[in-house]
Amino acid sequence: MIYTIQQWYTPAEVAVHNTATDCWVSLNGKVRNLTPWLEQQFKLCKCIKSCSCPINNWYCRDECVEYCPCFKRGFLYCDAKRLAMTILAYAGKDVSHWFKGDEWVKYTHPIVGSTIPFYQYGHGNREPVVPSTKWRPLCKCGPWWLDESNVVGKVTAKTRPIRITNTLIGTSTTLEVCSEETLYQIMMRYLPHNSHMLSYTWRYLDKPLKYNLTLEENGVPDEREIFNDLALPENLHIPDLLLYYNDDLTEDPPKECYCEHQDCVTGHPEDCHNVHIEDD
Known about the structure:
Layout: E1 3-4, E2 8-9, H1 11-15, E3 18-19, E4 22-27, E5 30-33, H2 35-42, E6 50-51, E7 66-67, H3 69-72, H4 81-89, E8 99-100, E9 103-104, E10 106-108, E11 115-117, E12 151-155, E13 159-166, E14 171-178, H5 183-190, E15 200-204, E16 207-208, H6 224-229, E17 240-245, E18 257-259, E19 273-274
Parallel strand pairs: 1-18, 2-12, 13-17
Antiparallel strand pairs: 3-4, 4-5, 5-12, 6-7, 8-9, 10-11, 13-14, 15-16, 15-17, 18-19
């Protein structure tokens, strides 16, 4: 078995990355890891802080707050942190409504009457139409929404439940998978429940399944819309994939070998390369 890196993500998988040290967002179908970008944004402020204690002592009380000159100048957040705090507020969520394609959503300016980007949810990389002393450009690294280095995968357009039953020991596992994932990619999701999957034959309704096809292409329908039309619960019936043990003596390769190439699922192990996965 060749272990492949996850390519598709569900909204629930993106939603768990919602902190400053682990920040993901989805934008126009792509999942972006903005954690390194946030770290750089938080380091941009080099202002000298002032203490809120009424008397200047060599120590501060527990309720002491450090103030930044940026607040006195009318900024909601210290220097570049104001943009980072906006992103952090939407961590783990979809921000596609901020943009139209690769550009921000535009509106007609009420004063000058021209069409300009609508920066309600953060500051952009262009100078505003009306001159403002509060505007400062972003970092020289470029707009984060156009940086392809922070893309970690794609967000699915539709999720679906699937049940996998091991007929050898009689256990069943229900997974939420992406409709675009092939059976081999679903096997990667099932890997924590069964680390020796190639010793099993995967079948649905007594028909063998092809690893390089999606569930829909393998003849496994998603009938939830039909259930909704009939006012029935969506989980009334979940398709069940059956695993039959082959009773072989094969051994799986070490799990340190991951591959990013889609050709691996069709039998091209020469494209596989080692990727060191560090623990969180």
